[in-house]
Amino acid sequence: MVELVWLIPMLPLLGFLILLITGHLLGEPRAGWVATAFAGASFIATLIVLVGLLGKDSHAGGRSYEFVLFEWLPAGSLKVEAGFLLDPLSITMALFVTGVGALIHLYSIGYMHGDEKYSKFFLYLNLFLFSMLMLVFGNNLVVTFLGWEGVGACSYFLISFWHRRESAATAGKKAFVTNRVGDWGFMIATFAIWSALGTVTYTEIANSPAMSAATGTAVSLLLFVAAAGKSAQLPLYVWLPDAMEGPTPVSAMVHAATMVTSGVYLLVRMNNVLTDDALLVIAVIGATTALFAALCAVAQHDIKRVLAYSTVSQLGYMFLAIGSGAYVAAIFHVITHAFFKALLFLGSGSVIHGMHDEQDMRKMGALRIAMPITGATFIIGWLAIAGVPPFAGFWSKDEILLAAWEQKNIGPLLWVVGLVTALLTAYYMSRQVILVFFGDQRWDDDVHPHESSWTMTTPLCVLAVAAAAGGAINLPLVKDWLVLEHFLEPIFHHPHHFSSGTATKIALAVISVAAGLIGISIAVLSWMKRRIPTDRLEPEFLENAMYVDSSYARVVGGPGTTGFQKTADFDRRIVDGGVNGLARAVMKLGQLIQPTQSGYMRNYAVGVALGALAILVVLAWGLL
């Protein structure tokens, strides 16, 4: 069954091709059902391959398989194959990518009802899913880069899907341009790895001798640049909050199931080349990003923008785990985050749909009555991300905080930053739930909120169950319950093992839960009980995301534009001028000697005679 791995990405590709040819004929809702069917079939294929993989011996690489389709790029000593790598990491990623992706497809059938580009939307979704699966299953850096660029292109198509809105068109371009910085890091790292090791294939990289300290650190940091672009870390996070301009299912696909997890996956896949110095940098930037984005989220009023900054913050947690060497904890949080963040985004989409496209939380309130299913499932997602036990987010976040505590360099400081971020997360998510689902009705009388269709509420219910119980895949209470850890550990060069005693683990968990409860309490006292002035909790500084985005715009629009223009002028005058000048010189030389090429034999005979005479004169002069 493991040999069916090629079927997992090929099914969404087949769906894309069918919609490309017949989508305009299928129309609504058949195009949506076709795309959903292929996404669901990909999930079923993933389950079948997983069963086959679990039947193999977990020791001595018994659960790692390479399937080479053909030699793709033979270029001298560089041999790049088009192939798939099936191992515990790739199949784990594929499970939630296809599972959550299929639910998002189903949800979109109802959400995109009436859109004039209905079939095109699903065409892009299938292509997005295919690209992410190629990224995950590629057996070398070049195939991964193919998927990497694929999800980047699809994010542009989908974020700017409603391109007649200037904000959506700008957001798509912003995502595309920002991610080119990360792509630069990916490419230079790939070139450096091939130069140092002579291969770009993952299994060969893992079995190669270690690179020098300087080369290894440079490669590690370049890979982190790539990851920071795709997974929205400081200073390249600015595209992700604006990605909400696309249809809400796109936000769920980008933020939960596909693109933003790419950077985390890349670093975990390349764990064997990451150096200690680079890991420290990754941990610090991850923790800083988590805190920064959480602070920005506390003052947002758009229901989706709160969740967008929340995604940036949770991604910071994942990089904190990677920087602490806890790769299993990072993947664990990727999985639980996919559950509760997809649930929250799709829940926000249901609210927007029921509120007739209203996204300002200040114009909502008391929606739990009008939208009971959306309200109940959204609350489960809130409890999960707020770190309330026993919901999924508590278990994965607690592992990351423990890993940060044990970090050998500045562990306690990183733990404090992570703890404060957890408190802020519980606060801003509680604020959102109160503003949207509780309190007084604040919408206009002509707005009549209503529950969404079954195609939208069914994915909400399934994701709510996953967000509530998803932590069961890696419970730290008993060693035998660490299912995910035991499954993934064989692929890591240096598996991470927690060294803290039971008392320390329990104490840190209690403090973490207490921080979450404090955050929830502050939100209740301020937004429900009105005992704390709320205007002080929403400073303009945070509402404008500390003016980082606007500062970028001023630099790019001012000195940046001037610098770009001067660079272009230098290229035109100096670089192009040199090339064109050489070409003009060659042309003039040709014009000068052109008369000698008359085409008349007698002229050539005279020339030969004159040349022979000149040679005789030179020889005679030499004899004298």
Secondary structure elements and pairings:
Blueprint: H1 7-26, H2 30-54, E1 65-75, E2 78-86, H3 88-111, H4 118-137, H5 141-159, H6 166-197, H7 202-207, H8 213-230, H9 239-242, H10 248-257, H11 262-269, H12 276-297, H13 303-323, H14 327-354, H15 367-370, H16 372-385, H17 392-405, H18 411-437, H19 454-469, H20 483-488, H21 502-528, H22 540-543, H23 548-593, H24 601-623
Antiparallel strand pairs: 1-2
Helix pairs in contact: 1-2, 1-4, 2-3, 2-4, 3-4, 3-10, 3-14, 3-19, 4-5, 5-6, 6-8, 8-11, 8-12, 10-14, 12-13, 12-18, 13-14, 13-17, 13-18, 14-16, 14-17, 14-19, 16-18, 16-19, 17-18, 17-21, 18-21
Structure overview:
The structure is a single chain. With 624 residues, the protein is mainly α. Helices cover 70% and strands 3% of the residues. It contains 24 helices and two strands. The chain has helices at residues 7-26, 30-54, 88-111, 118-137, 141-159, 166-197, 202-207, 213-230, 239-242, 248-257, 262-269, 276-297, 303-323, 327-354, 367-370, 372-385, 392-405, 411-437, 454-469, 483-488, 502-528, 540-543, 548-593, 601-623, and strands at 65-75, 78-86. It has a two-stranded antiparallel sheet with strand order 1-2. The model has no long low-confidence stretch (mean pLDDT 93).
